[in-house]
Each structure stands twice: as C-alpha cells, then as structure tokens.
Amino acid sequence: MIVKNNTASTMGMHTPTGFFSLLPGVNRIEKGLWEEFIKNPARRFQLAEGALEVVEEDELPSLKMKSPKDAVVLVKGTVRKDLLEAWFAEENRKVVLEAIEKQLAAIEPARTPTAEGDESDADEDEES
C-alpha cells in the first residue's frame, strides 16, 4: 500500500518483527502492517482527520494513471528512494522525470539532477 503522512512528524509502531516508521510524505507499507497500525484509535482518528491518507491500495502505484500535475505532486511528497527509483524506471514524461530527479537530489544531496549538471565540484575546486 502507499500511505501519505501529511504531518511533519514521523509516526511509528512496534510490531512482532520490529519497529516501522511512516515518514512525512509518501510511504510504501505492507497491507498487514497497515492493518495493525490502523487498529490504534489515535491512528484511525489521524486517518479520519487527513493526517494520514491511503494513496493507493497497490504495492507500487503507477504514475502513468495520474495527470502530470498529480504525478509531480505525489513525487514531491515522496522521500523513499526505492519508490522514486521505481517510478523513474517506468516513467517517460519529461516533467515527471525531472521532478523525480529533483526529489532524489533533495533526499540524496550527493546526487544532482542531470539537467542542471554538477556545480558542487566546481565550487570545491575554486576553494582549493
């Protein structure tokens, strides 16, 4: 499942297999874990109030079924590298690919979008 945490806080839960977290933004979560998570009355309240939102029931939603604008909004709210990379592999719309690259660069500072080039190396050379 894809669940969006619309708060600025990480939400977590202890499970028999360990601890899992819902980071702010879009998260992939196994359906069984989600069902355990949502048993908590506080989490049901957060779902009802919009702090949590089920985006897709599928394990990996396709951005292709969304308009470019909706796809970009979803990408901008995603902090999971594996999900962004999976979307990048299946996507062919330039505006969505650029949004994915920018989001990956934001969560992985060493990576820079290919369209903008890598200016960080040039700055380091000037300081030497």
Structural write-up:
Strand 2 and strand 3 form a beta hairpin. Helix 3 packs parallel to helix 5. This protein has six helices and five strands. 45% of the residues lie in helices and 18% in strands. The strands form two sheets. Strands 4-1-5 form a three-stranded antiparallel beta sheet. It is an alpha+beta fold and 128 residues long. The protein has two domains: 61 residues, no CATH class; 66 residues, no CATH class.
Question: Which labels suit this protein?
Answer:
6 helices; alpha+beta; 128 residues; elongated; single chain
In short:
The chain is α+β, with helices and mostly antiparallel strands and 128 residues long. It has helices at residues 31-37, 41-49, 68-76, 81-90, 94-107, 120-127, and strands at 2-5, 11-15, 18-22, 25-28, 52-56.
